[in-house]
Give the backbone structure.
Amino acid sequence: MDPGNLTRVSEFFLLGLSEDPELQIYIFGLFLSMYLITVLGNLLIILAVSSDPHLHTPMYFFLANLSFVDICFTSTIVPKMLQNIQTHSRAISYEGCLTQMYFFILFTGLDDFILTVMAYDRYVAICHPLHYTVIMNPWLCGLLVLVSWVISHLHSLLQSLMVLRLSFCMDLEIPHFFCELKQMVQLACSDTLLNNLVMYIAAVILAGGPLGGILYSYSKIVSSILRISSAQGKFKAFSTCASHLSVVSLFYFTLLGVYLVSAVTQSSHSSAIPSVMYTVVTPMLNPFIYSLRNKDLMGALRRLFHRTAKRVQ
């Protein structure tokens, strides 16, 4: 490597979803709409859970945490993207890029862990219903969320420190709409073997581990449901898991699709467009999936709207 090709990095350039100037206004409107729906929908879930005593249970506690993480997750990416479109600029500072990458890794990990904790909650509720309140006590629920935050922070910090050791060349264009870890490592001129090793080991442990936990929980859940004699009992048990299973499937299938597409195709934007699914679309759909299939949550939302309307009057 020629040292003359290295430069002190001050900023990167995000190429976004499209370089066509005529499409920028439509991309701006679409992403602004999805972002507002995401924030509003997840905020309503949090307000409904926190304000209604009937929803002060482990399942809704974890759901409120998932909604908070989804708001933060989308807010890490979309506002900067909208700002760049509005100002006709693709630049993001070196520090800003590292910060965005740090929080993106953090909230992706949190999404993964909280979905796993929610699967465990459903496992206890269906497989050990008589001991549910004893096992899923407030102390354990708080501890599970705290551990999820700590592990996600440590992982995000590790990956960020690994990127800090890299040197970059003159080509600072990121073919994405946010600073993704893999894209930044690929831009580096220095040796990235250790970065790639840490990245793939962490992916196997921190993505494969939670996925294994979710699959194990649902294998036990399905086994318990099949032992229920009445069809009504089976339907009732399965309905408590349907929303969570839908969200898990949406999250993992879109995430897996992104990396399969980027591995198969050579296009610079090969992972950018599919990434929209798990970074923007999935957090936007989560409130609808949980609320439309949940009578308790719908009731809490109606009571919340009713109280708000009375205060306005």
About this structure: The CA atoms of residues 83 and 99 lie 16 Å apart. The chain has one domain: 9-312. Confidence is low (pLDDT under 50) at residues 1-7. The chain has ten helices and three strands.
